[in-house]
TrEMBL record:
Keyword check for Cell membrane: no
Gene3D superfamilies according to UniProt: P-loop containing nucleotide triphosphate hydrolases
Similarity comment: family membership: Belongs to the ABC transporter superfamily.
PANTHER family listed in its UniProt record: ABC TRANSPORTER, ATP-BINDING PROTEIN
Name of the protein: ABC-2 type transport system ATP-binding protein
Species per Swiss-Prot/TrEMBL record: Lipingzhangella halophila
Length: 237
């Protein structure tokens, strides 16, 4: 199977602290891959490195077999550390601005909005949105340029159960259409219902990279996750 993303030996220091320490993982084309780990494990740093917002100190990142570059990043849609939206603009204006910046038709943005149930809110200013609505708009903007790879940092943050279900179904539908997603989450039950494979970061290194049933204990992903994190963290100390 074609590799959508490969992380090989990626390390990054932020100040004196090693945020990533030889991290490695592989995401296959067309799958939903869950990136797990405790707070401070390096998940956001890794996602920022993939998006080109941070430059690793060492290691390699390839996207669909190509080294990460400005051209390769056109294949990636990202939502990291919250939706970067402007409160004084509405969704229609966000679509217009982002479509021009990326050189794509505005209709692509409208299709993304409709897929997230946001079309009826297009004329309302973001300042009147709930947190969940802002996240939906952020995901729509990540989808606007029809990327082959999505990188989403806690995309169900602030969503009600219906919204969480909708995002889960969206990611599965995108996978069926060949779009690959790397998604970080602390909601292990949703990871178990959404993702094909998972990786677990602990102290900047990959403690696990593989199928869900290889991490779960007696079918329980939460137990397997906590056992792995506790065991690995103890080993680090």
């Amino acid at each position: 199977m074609v590799e959508a993303l490969r992380i090989t030996g990626v390390s990054k220091r932020l100040g004196r602290n090693p945020a990533l320490d030889g991290a490695e993982l592989t995401v296959r084309s067309g799958e939903v891959y869950g990136l797990l780990g405790p707070n401070g494990a390096g998940k956001t740093t890794l996602m920022k490195s993939i998006a080109g917002l941070l430059r690793p100190d060492s290691g390699e990142i390839t996207v669909f077999g190509r080294p990460l570059s400005e051209d390769a990043r056109r294949e990636i849609g990202t939502l990291i550390e919250g939706p970067g939206v402007w409160p004084h603009l509405n969704a229609r204006e966000h679509i217009r601005v982002h479509a021009r910046l990326r050189g794509v038709p505005e209709e692509w943005g409208w299709q993304a909005l409709r897929s997230l149930g946001m079309a009826d809110l297009a004329k309302r200013r973001v300042s009147a949105y709930s947190l969940g609505m802002r996240w939906r708009l952020g995901i729509a903007l990540a989808l606007l340029a029809r990327p082959r790879l999505l990188v989403l940092d806690e995309p169900t943050n602030g969503l009600d159960p219906v919204g969480v279900r909708d995002i889960r179904e969206l990611l599965r539908n995108l996978a069926s259409a060949g779009v690959t997603t790397l998604v970080s989450s602390h909601q292990l039950d949703q990871v178990a219902r959404t993702c094909d494979r998972v990786g677990v970061l602990v102290a900047g290194s990959m403690a696990y990279d593989g199928p869900l049933d290889g991490l779960a204990v007696d079918g329980d992903l939460e137990t397997g996750f906590f056992n792995l994190v506790t065991r690995t963290d103890a080993g680090v100390r």
